[in-house]
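Run Arginine-hydroxylase NDUFAF5, mitochondrial through structure prediction, thanks.
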Amino acid sequence: MHVFDRKTKIAQRNRSVFLQNPSTYDYVRDEVASRLADRICDISRKFCVAVDLGCGRGHLSKYLTSDSVDFLYQCDSAVEVLKQAPHLVDIITSKLNSSEEFLPLRENSVDLVLSCLSLHWVNDIPGIFRQVLSVLKNDGCFLGVMSASDTLFELRVALQLAEVERIGGFYPHISPFVDNVDVGELLYRVGFNLITLDVEELVVHYPNMFCLMDDLRGMGESNAALNRPIHVHRDVLLAASAIYDGDTSPRQRCTEGSTPSSVGSTYDTVPVFVKDYKS
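Sure, done. The structure for Arginine-hydroxylase NDUFAF5, mitochondrial is below.
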């Protein structure tokens, strides 16, 4: 079952490269990548061959060192984005323009698979988990972070309420995200062992809803669901903005470093750590 339009998503991400100062929009991926890199450093072993699945502009690889990885495959479906991933000084790298839904590597050839916020647009999550398991060597590791179910829930609710009020129904404007429990069950079903999951929340403050939507476009994270609406009525957007600005919880408005006029938006993530022992 296909939920997402992969061609549209790749086009969105490629277009984002040509915006003025595209790295301005990397703040969420960079922060999550930094946290994931800390987890990699906590592992007391060196990985000969690693894969960064959906590497983007090298958000994760810039935090890696030769103390952890010898050779790194940088894989991404958006070729213009992939071009901006830097070659590393102390780690041998190879760039592969390949879909996040397909790992073009031999079985039992990789020691570590990494993925940082690149799997929430994949149509077949169990399928890519099976491929990760297949390419990993015995005692290999899979470390990743996926966008989870509460990501952008403030924007989702605001748009839904506005559309119900103005047109009597609503369309899917925000990608359906996985639940952390579902991720664990899927990993177990495809054959992974020693699964560790966590939940982390990152709240970013924006002046208003339209600034958030502009940043999502700059990230290449606009809606790419197959049943997405082509256009959103102006009055729906204005109503959603009023709801979004007014209904954000006091907890989010009072986060340290925010201003009274800023509105919090939640990025909910599921860090995944799997150490696999194949029988």
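Strands lie at 47-53, 69-76, 92-97, 110-116, 136-147, 195-197, 200-206, 263-275.
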